[in-house]
Design brief:
Layout lengths: L1 H5 L5 E2 L2 E9 L5 E7 L6 H10 L4 E2 L2 E5 L5 H5 L2 H17 L4 E5 L12 H20 L3 E6 L3 E6 L2 E6 L3 H10 L2 E4 L14 H10 L6 E3 L5 E3 L2 H5 L9 E3 L1 H8 L5 E5 L4 E5 L2
Parallel strand pairs: 1-4, 2-5, 5-6, 6-7, 7-10, 10-11
Antiparallel strand pairs: 2-3, 8-9, 12-13, 14-15
Helix pairs in contact: 4-5, 5-6
Length: 270
């Protein structure tokens, strides 16, 4: 509904429709990819968006599902990566889509941060897919966690880069955009990223106009006991949408506080 109302101002809209499942052979080696979610395509939505703004591109999100233990074999197999890129392109062209936002193997990006060779293979795999998109005039957007994380202890913040400025430039070279998830810090504690972290992300990427910074339209709700016990990392809590937040905000007992431990505002109800 929000996308339709805002269509005249939107260059890209990215519905969450698809998953790319990495196939493995009898030896548990990655061998191909199958894109699932075709039944989720909302053709009425696409038509409505095109009618409201013919220039708007529909670039659905494609999240990769794979076994973590196959990460190395996957990103070091150039032939397979090219085949994956071509499979995605054929799928997008079949449904006349303008491109895609790719969530490509992001969960292992931080686990290999000290392995420069493996990281280089990951970046080159991303580039290969982006180039395949370009060859077919499709928009290629990469969606990954932020390139710099924060470790916060007793109010002090230590900034921990997951990639170098050179590596960031490498990714930005072939993609139309790189979307960093600045609404969650997946690298360490899982709190929402503050303005200083966003600034450092821009600096690391040399303030490239290809960088997309995500701003979420939701919050996370935790029980107060869990929060005070420190159980508020990624994967915990419930999604809190706007209407429910406004309802809680109108509660006379609600207090808006700033938490200096994780550097974010919290709405507390006891």
């Amino acid at each position: 509904m929000l996308a339709r109302k805002s269509a005249p101002r939107l260059d890209y809209v990215s519905p969450v429709w698809f998953e790319a499942e990495v196939e493995v052979d009898g030896y548990r080696m990655p061998s191909g990819v199958t894109i699932r979610g075709q039944e989720n395509i909302n053709h009425d939505f696409i038509q409505a968006m095109k009618k409201a703004n013919p220039a708007t591109k529909i670039v659905p999100r494609i999240k990769f599902e794979y076994m973590p233990e196959t990460f190395k074999d996957l990103v070091t197999n150039e032939v397979l990566i090219r085949r994956i890129g071509q499979t995605i392109v054929e799928f997008l062209k079949k449904f006349r889509l303008g491109g895609a936002v790719i969530e490509f193997l992001y969960s292992d990006l931080y686990t290999v941060e000290n392995d420069s060779w493996l990281k280089l293979n990951y970046y080159e795999s991303c580039q290969s897919i982006a180039k395949t998109f370009k060859n077919h005039n499709l928009t290629a957007i990469l969606a990954i966690p932020p390139p710099i994380g924060a470790y916060i202890h007793s109010g002090e913040t230590k900034w921990i880069p997951a990639m170098t400025s050179k590596e960031c430039t490498l990714l930005l070279k072939d993609f139309d955009f790189v979307h960093f998830w600045t609404y969650n810090d997946f690298s360490h504690q899982g709190h929402r990223i503050n303005i200083e972290q966003i600034r450092r992300t821009h600096e690391l990427c040399r303030e490239s106009k290809k960088v997309m910074i995500g701003l979420n339209f939701y919050g996370t709700q935790y029980s107060l006991n869990e929060h005070r016990a420190g159980k508020t990392g990624v994967g915990n809590g419930n999604t809190l949408m706007g209407k429910e937040y406004l309802k809680l905000l109108s509660d006379p007992s609600a207090k808006l506080e700033f938490n200096y431990e994780n550097m974010e505002h919290e709405l507390v109800l006891e």
